[in-house]
Amino acid sequence: MNMVTVKINGIEYNLKGEEREEYLHRIAAYVDKKIKSIMSNNPKLSTTSSAVLAAVNCVDDLFKSQGTCEELQKKLNDMKKQDVSSAKQIEDLKEEIKKLHSSNEELTAKLNGNEMKIELKKKQEDIEHLKNELKESKMSVEKYADDYQNFDAEKKELKFQLQSARYKIINLQNKLMESQIELAKYKKLKDPLINEGGN
């Protein structure tokens, strides 16, 4: 319990209360201000009358404050109701989002299925294209095989002609070598004759 001495309209009073001293001083200052305001407006009023009018003013302020509090409480209650309604809307929206996610996943799965079908069709077309290329390649190989057999016969003839030409070259080389040897011998025989003729 706190007890403070306060002055209201110049008179000291002892106030007791559970509240803090600062709070009790604020109450006394508020009442003092009300009384002084009333007495300044009507100096002929007695202290008792001024105190009664101040009490009436304080009660008026109290009622107005209570009215304001009630309005604020009503607004607070309305906000709480709105908050509950908003929370329900949020839950509904979450549920809707969940359904949309599920629907989106189904659509994505279907889309992926369609993409797989398209990819499969493309691969089948590629396989058909490769089969056609393979068929054409086989036909080309068979044609080249026929051409190669014909070429093989020509190749054997060319080999024979080439071998004959080699033999002719070897024979000509041998003849050339013999001719060079004979020429060397001829020169050797000719040189002494020239020398003797010169002497």
Would you write up a description of this structure?
This protein has 199 residues and is mainly alpha-helical. It has a domain of 68 residues. It contains two helices and two strands; from the N terminus they run E-E-H-H. Strands 1-2 form a two-stranded antiparallel sheet. Strand 1 and strand 2 form a beta hairpin. Helix 1 crosses helix 2. The model has no long low-confidence stretch (mean pLDDT 83). It is found in: Cytoplasm. This is Cell division protein ZapA. Homodimer. Interacts with FtsZ. Keywords: Cell cycle, Cell division, Coiled coil, Cytoplasm, Septation. InterPro entries: Bac_CellDiv_Activator, Cell_div_ZapA-like, Cell_div_ZapA-like_sf.
Summarize the structure.
With 199 residues, the chain is mainly alpha-helical. It has a domain at 2-69. The chain is built from two helices and two strands.
In percent, how helical is the residue content? over 70%
Low-confidence stretches: none
Rg on CA atoms, Å: 65 Å
Taking the alpha carbons of the first and last residues, their distance comes to 171 Å
What attributes characterize this protein structure?
199 residues, mainly alpha, 2 strands, coiled coil, Cell_div_ZapA-like_sf, cell cycle
List the helices and strands and how they pair.
Layout: E1 2-8, E2 11-17, H1 21-41, H2 47-198
Antiparallel strand pairs: 1-2
